[in-house]
Amino acid sequence: MATYDLVVIGTGPGGYVCAIRAAQLGLKVAVVEKNATLGGTCLNVGCMPSKALLHASELFEEAGHSFAKMGIGVSAPKLDLPAMMNFKQQGIDGNVKGVEYLMKKNKIDVLVGKGKILGTGKVEVTGADGKATSVEAKSIVIASGSAVAQLKGIEIDEKRVVSSTGALSLDKVPGKLIVVGAGVIGLELGSVWRRLGAEVTVVEFLDRILPGMDGEVVKQFQRILEKQGFAFKLGAKVTGVDTSGAKLAVKVEAAAGGNPETLEADVVLVAIGRVPYTEGLGLKEAGVALDERGRVVIDDHFATSLKGVYAIGDVVRGPMLAHKAEDEGVAVAELIAGKAGHVNYDVIPGVVYTTPEVSSVGKTEEDLKQAGVAYTVGKFPFTANGRSKVNQTTDGFVKILADAKTDRVLGVHIIGREAGEMIHEAAVLMEFGGSAEDLARTCHAHPTRSEAIKEAALTVGKRAIHM
Ligand code: FAD
Ligand code: NAI
After folding, report:
1. pLDDT band at residue 385, thresholds of 50, 70 and 90?
2. Whose CA is nearest to atom 23 of ligand 2?
3. 3.30.565.10, 3.30.930.10, 3.40.630.30, 3.50.50.60: which CATH number matches 2-148+275-336?
4. How far apart are CA 56 and CA 50, in angstroms?
5. Residue 444 bears catalytic tag
6. What is the pLDDT of residue 79?
7. Could you report the per-residue pLDDT of 16-31, keeping only the tens digit for each?
C-alpha cells in the first residue's frame, strides 16, 4: 500500500495549493481528484471561465458602444458565440494544464478517482471503472469544495433551467433570461448574457442586491446595472418553472407570499448560493463532524473531529472564495509540517467582476454600526479623478472607513472600473494595521485611478485636494 505524509482530497484552489506548499516543505504528497481535470470548481466551471466570458463580452459591448466616441470606426460587432466559448475553453485548458505541470514539478502524485476516508490515516480511491485502492497517509486534508444550491421544486437541466455551470456554456443567447438570486454569480453571469443581447430580469428574495456588501456601494451599483438594462424584482421569490411550453413560464411571488405573477423566459439561471460538498467521502462513518449547514467542523488549526484529518476551502465555514481556500491550503500545509500557518479572516478581499467592478475588504458601514464602533468615512468619486475623466469611465467611488479614535483603516469599498485590482493596496495597508493617514501620505502615481484611494484617505481627514 502506498504511504504518504499527506493526502489531499480535491484539487480546487484549496487542495492543489495545499499540496504544493506541503511538497515545498518536504512532505510526500498525493492529491485525489474525481473529475477528469484538475483545478476544481474555480478553474473548470467557476472563476476562470466566468472571467473569460466577462472579458470577451465586455469588449463586445465596448466595440458596439464606446469605440465610436473615441474616434475608432468599426462596423457593428457580430457575435460568434462558438468562437467565444472556444476562447473560454482555451483559458480553462491553459490553467488546468498549469496545475498538472505544478503537480509534476513538485513531485505530487495524482490519484484519479473518488476519495473516501476510511478512518485516521486511510483513504480509499475508487476509479471510474469501480476499482478501489487504498493509500495510507499521516495526514489527510479534505478540500472537496461546494456544489450548486438547489431551489426546491425546480429541476436544473443545465439547458433551459441552468446553474452557473450551464450558464457558462449556453449554445445561444437567450432572448429573456431570468436570474434567481442577486448575488455574485447572478450579477456576473447576468452581465455576460445582457451584454451579448439577452433581456435580464433578476429575482431576489431580499430587498437589496449583493447581501453582505456595503449598502451605499450596492445602492449605486444597482442604479448603474439598471441603466445598463438589468431589471430587478427585489423582495420576491421564484416558486416554480413550467417547462412544458416552448417558453418557460416562471412563477414569481412576493418573498412573504402573495402577489403572484408569471414571467416568460427562455432560460432561468438559479444562483441562490452554494452548499458544501461531502458526498461519498464517508465522513459520518469515519467520525468527521458536520455542522447544521453540512460544513465540515474545524478548529482554529483546520483540524476536524477525527485525528489527523483537516479541512479547508468551500467545505468549511467562511466565504466561498478561491483565494480564501488557497490561503487556508497554505496555512494547513504549514501547520501539518510543524510551522505556524495562519489566515487573517479580517482581511479577505471580495470582488464582483462586473462593469463597473465592486470590491471590498474589511468591515462595511453596517458591520461597524452593528458593532457600535465609532468610525470616520472618507469618500472620493471617480468623477473627480483625472484618469477616469480622460477615459470617460467616471462611474463609482472609493469609500474608506477608519476608526474614529485611532484612524486605523477598518474597511475599504470601491465601485468603479478596475476596482478589483485597486483593492489590494488597502488589503496590504490593513494587514499592517495602517491608518488613513498612512494611505494619504503614500505617494500615488499620476494619473491613475488609484489616486482616488489616496484622495478618499485624505477625505477621512477632511483635506481632499481634488474635491
Ligand atoms: P473546489 O474548487 O470546489 O474543488 C473541489 C474539488 O474536489 C473538485 O475538483 C471536486 O471534483 C473534488 N472532489 C470533491 N469530492 C471529492 C472526492 N470525494 N474525491 C475526489 N475529489 C473530490 N471565487 C473567487 O474567489 N473569485 C471568483 O471570481 C469566483 N468566481 C466563481 C464563479 C462561479 C460561476 C462559481 C461557481 C464560483 C466562483 N468562485 C469564485 C468560487 C470558487 O470557485 C470557490 O470558492 C473555490 O473553487 C473553492 O475552492 P475549493 O478548493 O474549496 O473547492
Ligand atoms: P450568493 O450567496 O452570492 O447570492 C445568492 C443570492 O440569492 C443572495 O442574494 C440571496 O439572498 C438570494 N436568494 C437565496 N434564495 C433565494 C430564493 N429562493 N429566491 C431568490 N433569491 C434567493 O450566491 P451565488 O451568487 O450563487 O454564488 C455562490 C458563491 O460563489 C458565493 O459564495 C460567492 O462567494 C462565490 N462566487 C464568487 C465570485 C467572485 O468572487 N467574484 C463569483 C461567483 C461566485
Report:
1. very high
2. 273
3. 3.50.50.60
4. 10
5. no
6. 98
7. 999 999 999 999 999 9
Q: Please identify, by atom number, the ligand 1 atom nearest to the C-alpha of residue 168.
A: 34
| Cell (9 digits) for 204 | 431576489
* pLDDT tens by residue, 260-281: 999 999 999 999 999 999 999 9
The CATH homologous superfamily to which domain 161-272 belongs is FAD/NAD(P)-binding domain (3.50.50.60)
Ligand nearest to the CA of 167: 1
- Specify the ligand 2 atom closest to the Cα of 151: 18
Query: Structural domain boundaries of the chain?
Result: 2-148+275-336, 161-272, 350-460
- The number of the ligand nearest the C-alpha atom of 188 reads 2
The 8-class DSSP code of residue 247 comes to S
For residue 75, what is the DSSP state?
P
Pocket around ligand 2: residues whose beta carbon is below 6 Å from it? 151, 180-186, 188, 203-206, 211, 237-238, 271-274, 319-321, 351-353
Reported as a single tens digit per residue, the pLDDT across 194-231 is 999 999 999 999 999 999 999 999 999 999 999 999 99
Q: State residue 382's pLDDT score.
A: 98
CATH 3.30.390.30, domain 350-460, yes or no:
yes
What is the Cα–Cα distance from 367 to 269, expressed in whole angstroms? Answer: 30
Q: How far is it, in rounded angstroms, from Cα 252 to Cα 259?
A: 8
Measured between alpha carbons, how far is 115 from 311 in angstroms, rounded to an integer?
14
